[in-house]
Amino acid sequence: MEKEYNMTINRLPSKTWNWLRMNETQLERIEIPAAGEAKVTLPEKITTAENEGSKPWNADFVGIASGMGEDMDGLLAAAGVKAKHYEVPADVTEVQPLLLDYAYAQNSLQAGAVAVKAGKNSEITVIEDFASDRETSGQAAVSTRLYLEEGAKLRLIQVQRLGSDFTFMNDIGALCEEKASLEVIQLILGGKNTYLGCKTTLQGRESSVNTDTAYIVDGEGRLDMNYVALHEGKKTQSNMQAGGVLRDHAFKLYRGTIDFKWGAKGAVGNEKEDVLLLSNDVVNQTIPLILCAEEDVEGNHGATIGKLDDELLFYLESRGMNREQIYEMMAMAKVDAVCRKIPDASTQAKVQKFLGRAVEEEEA
């Protein structure tokens, strides 16, 4: 049995200039992990099941493509992963979130998969918390598949609080039927090498997706992202936002694609990234992409990338703050803006504790 795996992940739907080396990411000799499980807090109205051992882990969601691509599925299959399936019945609004806590120990080598089906006109929040001690090293891979039936509303929240030498592969694939609405909120606060993929197929008329990602990458950290909004239905809407801070010798690559397919009349897509560079030694790469096979659509993209304005620095320094305090304040502001969107107080507290701010807030 093979113990290592070569992967091509985070492919752009349409290639750009090869010399940029941004079309895809090659991962060589990745160790094949063992299947792992999350600690689950299951709301009363949610049903759960594990896929049959004879089926591929994603058999019931095989038509839902993901952001990282087929090689991620191959890694999970090689690891013998069995997906945990969760279903929200039709017309059910579940107030309590489905909580999935992934706790990784030193030298962890784990993989997992989650599949969530939101029934017609249902509503649910799913929170995935990926955590380890600050100095932990290891490798983990998790794939999340989402299927939203007509009128369903699903909010997926992911918090990454991993050690400074941890490699993490986080893959999302979603399909939205008519008038279904998906919201994805991500906080990337730790880890050394992080690979994110998120692809949403807006198949049904007037379906929508909103993604909001905040990140802090420092040290020798690497963040590699691929977000795709695939517009197939009429009057579909996508809004993809990412914002974060790079410091020390960090590297970040953001791919954001709005893909208007033929027949997606009246569709609207927006994407924006806001990057703050706090060191001269960081590497930032951003590639916003709009693909269009339909005339009656509206696509917008933009990126704001740069350092703090000198006038702002002077103003804050004149108020008694040093540059280290200013940089920390600006970094935390981006995280706080997204953290406030998390509807679970316990998860918010975990974020603040990881950032070393819990005592300060309690005293305040």
Automatic annotation (TrEMBL):
It comes from the Bacteria. InterPro entries: Fe-S_cluster_assembly_SufBD, SUF_FeS_clus_asmbl_SufBD_core, SUF_FeS_clus_asmbl_SufBD_sf. It holds the Pfam family SUFBD_core. GO terms for biological process: iron-sulfur cluster assembly. Residues 106-332 form the SUF system FeS cluster assembly SufBD core domain. This is SufD family Fe-S cluster assembly protein.
